[in-house]
Every structure is written in structure tokens, then in C-alpha cells.
Design a protein that fits this description.
By secondary structure, the chain is α/β, with parallel strands linked by helices. It contains five helices and four strands; from the N terminus they run H-H-E-H-E-H-E-H-E. This is Short-chain dehydrogenase TIC 32, chloroplastic-like protein.
Length: 120
């Protein structure tokens, strides 16, 4: 119960991060290089997924955003590129409720010949 209250209050845990820690704060404290990595981030068109995509792209990670709403994904990409024009963001249309759509995405991603280092 005490741990739950500490979490809800945003008090940092053993990792040094709490529920109020932002993706930017974690990335700023990271000593490991992130450039040259590739991340697929599902749910990146809003909320914590969008913030994670923004921060990882800013840190040099190649970000792949599979999205059902490609227009919303394009708006996110444009916003991130306006903040940092050197980012590499790729968009793919996908409907996670359709196995055929998931297979199409996988085929398209594999055809790029890129490593997959991070899957969120």
C-alpha cells in the first residue's frame, strides 16, 4: 500500500524515476548512445506514445510509427520534424485488429532491412 501511494504521489523509486518523470528526463539521464537504433512504437499518435516517439527521435533513434490513422501520424511526424529537422521517422498504415494488416506491415518493415532494437 505504501509503495502504491508513493507511486501515485510521483515519488521516485529505486530507479530514480517516478510516475511524474517524463520521457525527456529519462533520456537526458541516459548515458547509453541511442543513435543508429530503430524503434517501432505502436500507439505513437497520441499520449505517452507520441511523447516517447518525440524524445527517442530527438535522441537519434530511427522511429517507425505504425498507425491506423495515417493522417494523425503524419501530423505527429511533422511536429517532431519542426522541432528537430534531422530526425528519421517512418510511417506505416496498420490496423492491429486485422491479421492481414499486421502481416503487410511486417513484410514492409522487413523489406527495409533495418534492425529492430526497440519495440514499444
Amino acid at each position: 500500500m505504501k509503495d502504491t501511494l508513493r507511486y501515485l504521489a510521483g515519488i521516485a523509486g529505486p530507479s530514480g524515476y517516478g510516475s511524474k518523470t517524463t520521457a525527456q528526463q529519462v533520456a537526458d539521464n541516459s548515458s547509453s548512445p541511442l543513435h543508429r537504433l530503430t524503434a517501432i512504437i505502436t500507439g505513437a499518435t497520441s499520449g505517452i506514445g507520441a511523447e516517447t516517439a518525440r524524445v527517442l527521435a530527438k535522441r537519434g533513434v530511427r522511429v517507425v510509427i505504425p498507425a491506423r490513422d495515417i493522417k494523425k501520424a503524419a501530423e505527429l511526424k511533422e511536429g517532431i520534424e519542426n522541432e528537430n529537422p534531422n530526425v528519421e521517422i517512418m510511417l506505416f498504415e496498420i490496423d492491429l485488429s486485422s491479421l492481414a494488416s499486421v502481416k503487410r506491415f511486417c513484410t514492409q518493415f522487413l523489406a527495409l532491412g533495418l534492425p529492430l532494437n526497440i519495440l514499444m
